[in-house]
Amino acid sequence: MERRRFLKQSGILAAASGLQRFMPVAGPFTINDFANGNIPEDKKLDKNWIKSLYERGSVTSYSKTKNELRYIGMPAGGICCGTVYVGGDGRLWVWDIFNQNQLGAVNKTLPIQLEGFNAKEINNIHGTLYLEPAVNTNALQQGIALIIRQKNDTITKRLHQDDWDEIIFEATYPIATIRYIDQRLPVEVMLQAFSPFIAGDADNSGLPATIQSVSVKNLSSEPLTVHITGWLENKILQYTQKEKTDFKRANTVLKDKHIASVFLGCTTQNEAIKTAADFGNMTFATLDKSALCTGDITTDSKDTFQIVKNLVSPVANAPIAAITSTHVLKENEAAVTDFIISWFMPNASLNKDQLKEVADAASHYYASRFESSTAVANHIAQRYPFLKEHTLLWRDTWYDSTLPYWFLDRTFLNISALATTTSHRFKSGRFYAWEGVGCCYGTCNHVYQYAHAMSRIFPELERDTRERVDLGISFDEATGMIRYRGEGSGPSIDGQAGTVLRIYREYLMQEDDALLKNNWPKIKKAVSFIIAQDKNKDGMEDTPLENTLDALWSGEISWIVGLCIAAVSAGEQMAKGMEDTAFAAVCRQYTAQGSANMESQLFNGEYFIHRPDPKVGKKEIGSYDTCHIDQVYGQSWAWQAGLGRILSKEKTMSALQALWKYNYMPDVGPYIKEHPGGRFYALAGEGGLVMNTNPHKDDKPYGEAKAWQIGYFSECMTGFEHQVASHMMAEGMIEESLVITRTIHDRYHAFKRNPFNEIECSDHYARAMASYGTFLSACGFEYDGPKGYIQFAPKWNKDNFKAPFTAAKGWGSYLQSKQQDGQTYSIIIKYGHLKLNKISVTKLDDIPVKQVVATAGKERISLTYTTNNSKVLITFAQPLLLQVDKVLKIFMSKL
What we know:
single chain, Glycosyltransferase, 3 domains, nine-stranded antiparallel β-sheet, 37 strands, Non-lysos_glucosylceramidase, heme binding
C-alpha cells in the first residue's frame, strides 16, 4: 500500500516519497552525527527557512493538483455535538453523530506486528490514522451539484474533486473556504463550510448542525441559470439496522416561514428501537424559501432532481432528500444558497459502566434545548444573519494579524477537537470529554490541564467544569483531593496541581471574583492536598501518585515538583485575593523552599532531573538523569497564569536549551530506529521533540522496571511539544519555538494526513490544545479580569504588531506601532465588551517617555503611568468599559 512504508529492523513506518519538501530544511547529516544514538547538537537548519517562519505569508491553502485534498477532514459541526468532517472538495464525511462511542474519528486497525506490541493489530490508541490516514468514508450519501444552463447548453458539476480542474481548500478554521476552478465554465464557484462558532458563546457555537454556503457568480456576458441542488440520504438507525429491520425511514417536505426543508425520520412499532443510540432525525434545509424540495429523489419528476438522481446510488429503505435553489444571473451577478443540515440524536451512549451513576449522561445538552432537528434548523434560520456574520467576524479577527498565517493555523485549529466526539455536553450542560475520540474517559485532568484553548475561547465551559466537576463531583471533602477522571478514579498529582492552576486561570478569565469567593474553602483544601504530598517537608512533592505518563513514580521529579510549586504559588495569589494572610504565608513558604531546593538538588548543571527515593532507588520507572520534555513545565504554566518566575531564569533557560540540544531532531528516523517500541506520532523523514533522551548514556536510564510506559519516552506527542514551544516563546527562545511549532505543522500537512487531527492515544487529542499557549506567549498576553488588567508584550514584529485577543466578556484586536515621534497602542473591541482599569505595554525603543495620552472614542481619558525597564503600566483614573466600535488609543510621545 502507498502509505505502508517500513523502516528496516525498527518496526516503524517510514516516509518514502514526497515528504522531503515538508521537513525542515536541514543538513546534510552524516552517519557520525547519529553515532551511538546521539542527537546532532547542530540541527543544521537552513537560514532562509528559519527566516520564512517569521514572515506573514498567505492563507494556508491546499490544492487538488498537488494531491493535497484526500486526507482533509475539518470538523464542521457544533462543539460537543458529534463529528462531521468537511473534506478537501467540500463533501461531508465521517458523520460520527450517531452515538457509536467508537475509538477514533474512523475506527481503524492495521494488521502489523511491531516490536513492543503483542497484538497483531494496532488501533487508534497507537496512532493508526497517523500511519494510514483515513480518506473520505461516507456513512451516508450527501452532496451538492450545480446545473448550469446558458442558451442551449446544460452542464452538471458536482462539488466533487473528480469534476473540476482545480480545487483550492483554504484552511481557516472555523470556516473552510473551497474554490472550484474549471477554465471552460463561465462561473466562479465557492463553498464556505462551517457551523456557527462565536468565541465566548458556547451555546450558539454548540448547535448540532453544519452549514454549506454555496456562492456562484456569472463571469460571462450572457445571462445564465444556475440550479444549486443538494441531497442527503436518510440513514437514521444505520447501525441498528444490522440487527433490527422493523422500522421504516421516511422523508417529509416541510414549509416554514423561515426555511424550505425536508425532515428525515423513521417510524417503528418497536419501542426498544426508539432507545437506540442512532435513533433520531435529521433536517435538510435552505434559507431560500422558494426552493424546490423532495423527500425522495428517485420518485420526483422535476428535471433537476432527475439529473441529480443519476449522481446517487439509491438503496431500499434509505430515501434521499433533495433541495434545488434556482438563480438567474446577469453578467457579473452573484447568488448564494445556504444549506443547513441539522441532527437530533438524543440517546447518548457514552460508557454506561463509567457513567452509570450520572443521570444526565444519557442525553445530549442540545436535546435539552431543542425538540427536533427541525427546531435546530429553524433556530439557525431565525438568527442566521447574526450567526453567520459573527462566525465570519471571529474568523476575520483571528486572521487579521501580523503573525504568520501558518502560526495562527497551528496554534488555534486544535480547538476543533471540541467539535468532535472527543467532547460532549450532558443534558445538564456539564462538559465531559474523552482524552481523544472514544479513548480514556472522564475529562482526565492530567491531560486537560495542558489544554489552554477552551479557557480562552469558551471560558464559561471551563469555569463550569471547575465548579461543577473539579470542586464538586470529583472533590473529596475530607482531603481536598480532586479525582482525575470525574466520578471514577483517585488522585493524580500533576492533575491536581494543574487543576489548581486552572482554577486560578478561570478566576482570571472572569470579570468578578465570584468563582473564588464561592469556592475558597474547597480551593484551599485542594492546595493543601498538594502541600501534604511533600513527605519530607522540603517543598518538593515526593509521594508516588498517578501522573499523565500512567505510572506511579517515586522520588522527587522535577516536572511534578515544579508543577506543584506553580500550583501552590497560584494558591498564594488566591489566598491574597481572599485576604487569607495565614494561608498565603504557608503557600509562600512552600514555594520559596521548593524553588530553592529544586534548583539546588534537582539541577545537574545543565537540566533538571528526577532524584529517586533513597529507600526505593531506581527499581521503578522514572526519568531519572534523562532529559525530560516537561522538566520545567511548572514555569511554563506560571507564564500562562501570569505568576511570573518560580525558577531562576538562568537554570530555566539552561533546561530549555538542553531540550533543544538533546531532544529536538529535524529527522527522528535514526533515533526511533535505535529506540523502537513507541507509538507513531512522528516517522522517519519527519522532525519532532522527543519525550525523553539519555545524554549521559546510562545503561538503564528509566530504571529497572520492564514497564510498557517506557515506550512513551521515544515518542513525539504534540501536546507536550506545544507546551515546550509555548515556554520557549515566553522565555525569548523565539526561533526554537517557531521551529518546533512549524515541525508539528509540517507533520500534519495535508499531503500526508489530516491537518485538523493531532493524534495522541486516539484522534483529536485534547492535550494538543496546548498549542494556544504558544499564541498567548507570542503576544506576551496576560489578563486579570477581576482587576481589570491586561498586558501585551509581543515577541517579534514589535514595531508593527496586530493580533486578536479574548477576555471575560468580549474579544477584539490589539495593535501597536512605532512612529517617528512616538508609539501608538490600540484596542478594538469586535464583540461584547472589555472592562479595563490598567494596561501594560512595552516601549518600542529605549527613548524615555515624555507623555502618555489615551482616548476612548472621542473622549480623552485621565491616567497615570509608571515605567519599569521596557514596560509601561498605564492606570486609568476611572474604570473603562470598552464596547464594540469604541476604540481605545494610547499614544506615547518621546522626549
